[in-house]
Amino acid sequence: MSTIEVVVDRWDSRLAVGASGLLREFNDAGVLTAADAHVAMRLERLGKGDGFGEAVSLAVALAVRAPRLGHVCVDLATVRTTASSDLDTPIDLHQLPWPDPSGWIESLDASGLVGPDRPLQLDGSRLYLDRFWSEECQVAADLLERAEVAADDVEGSVLAAGLRRLFTADEVPDLPRLAAATSVLRRFSVIAGGPGTGKTTTVARVLALLDEQAAAAGRRPPLVALAAPTGKAAARLEEAVHHEGGVLDVAAAVRDRLLRHRGVTIHRLLGWNPGNRTRFRHHRLNRLAHDVVVVDETSMVSLSLMARLVEAVRSDARLILVGDPEQLASVEAGAVLGDLVGPAVRGLRMDSGARSALAGVVGQDVPAVA
Q1: Mean pLDDT of 112-117
Q2: Which of the residues 15, 23, 77, 342 has an alpha carbon 20 to 30 A from that of 38?
């Protein structure tokens, strides 16, 4: 296979001094930066004699590159067709000497870099840095555990009456009504949709319904956190809840509490930990006091921040993620909302018991997966 001839300036800061072989070629072509190559070169020096070859060095560098581009892993089977170059001049990356994926994976398995307590993790053809692998597994496990348990503090008749009063649309299925009912019945829920689909107005109704549940059971009103990745998004969520709360058909006390909710950034909610930019005051061993945590603009939440948030929410509290998976993505690695919503695009995914409970309170059939 012919290689690409690229005219490079050896004084360019993007180039890794000392890189050779595949690292040199891919760095010259703008696929890798100096930082990507230097990490691979460092691991190569540490791993000499353990089956560490040029293909493994390239895989390491591409795994380091992935988070810089917003991805938590690199797929070695498809990276040849998805890679891009940082060079100003167009370049055909297909001509680069890409390793054969099957042999590439075998080389990684033999390198000693992949596996438990190793810097890399391999899932099929997807190669992760261990940190992102661990965080993805943690978020998945925490959310699955939360999603499997229905809330045990819901009075069905009170919820059904509230849904009839607050949702008057004649559409079947009434998706906002289904979303609100699910958010009350479950400890974990996702309200997703495009602009103008009523996501934040549904959130205000959910908060009113939860307040009514507490009143009916003689409990204190739920402690609610309205959060978003940015201050501007948090202010918009607060404004939307206040606007909708002012017109809802609810008791004066419920309306008053809706109007007192304040939006904060996720970082402020979790609490800054002086001297540590990646850890917060609230975590798995010091959880948030809130009974309900609503996160808007979830598409902008990175995998790492989601991991910190999910572990800080009490297991008996409700976590409601809101957003549009097609809108702004996180500037850091991970697309958590898109990964969560993706399997549900063909219909609501739930077991027969959850589907029956939901149908009972909304008074409508719940659509199954198409």
Answers
A1: 89
A2: 77
Last residue of a domain, one of 96, 129, 162: 129
- pLDDT digit string, tens, across residues 352-362: 777 788 888 88
- 187 with 62, same domain: the answer is no
- Exposed e or buried b for every residue in 252-284, given b needs 16+ CB within 10 A? eebbebbeebebbbbbebbeeeeeeeeebebee
User: Please, are residues 166 and 209 in contact by the beta-carbon 8 Å criterion?
Assistant: yes
Over the stretch 134-145, which tens digit does the pLDDT of each residue have? 999 999 999 999
The phi and psi torsions of 27 (rounded to 5 degrees) equal: -70, -45
The answer to the question of residue 14 being in a domain is no
pLDDT band at 364 (very low <50, low <70, confident <90, very high): confident
Domain count, the chain: 2
91 with 180, same domain? Answer: no
Determine the residue type at 218.
G
Chain position carrying tokens 């070695």: 76
Q: Are residues 273 and 163 in the same domain?
A: yes
Q: Using an 8 Å Cβ cutoff, are 65 and 46 in contact?
A: no
Q: Residue 182 sits in which domain range? A: 149-362
CATH number, domain at 214?
Answer: 3.40.50.300
Distances in Å between the alpha carbon of 305 and those of 36, 40, 60, 267, 325?
23, 26, 24, 9, 17
H-helix segments, the chain: 21-28, 34-47, 54-68, 79-82, 101-111, 130-147, 156-166, 175-185, 199-217, 231-245, 252-258, 266-270, 303-312, 336-341, 352-362
Neighbours of 152 (CB within 10 A): 7
| The two three-digit tokens of residue 144, written as one number | 């699955």
Instruction: Label residue 219 exposed, middle or buried (CB < 10 Å: 0-12, 13-18, 19+).
Output: exposed
Residues 117 and 221 in one domain: no
Entry pTM? 0.88
CA nearest neighbour of 369 among 348, 339, 342: 348
Categorize the per-residue pLDDT at 370 as very low, low, confident or very high, splitting at 50, 70 and 90.
very low
**Residues 70 and 178 grouped into a single domain:** no
Q: Which of 77, 101, 129 is the last residue of a domain?
A: 129
Whether 121 and 160 map to the same domain: the answer is no
265 band by pLDDT with thresholds 50, 70 and 90: very high
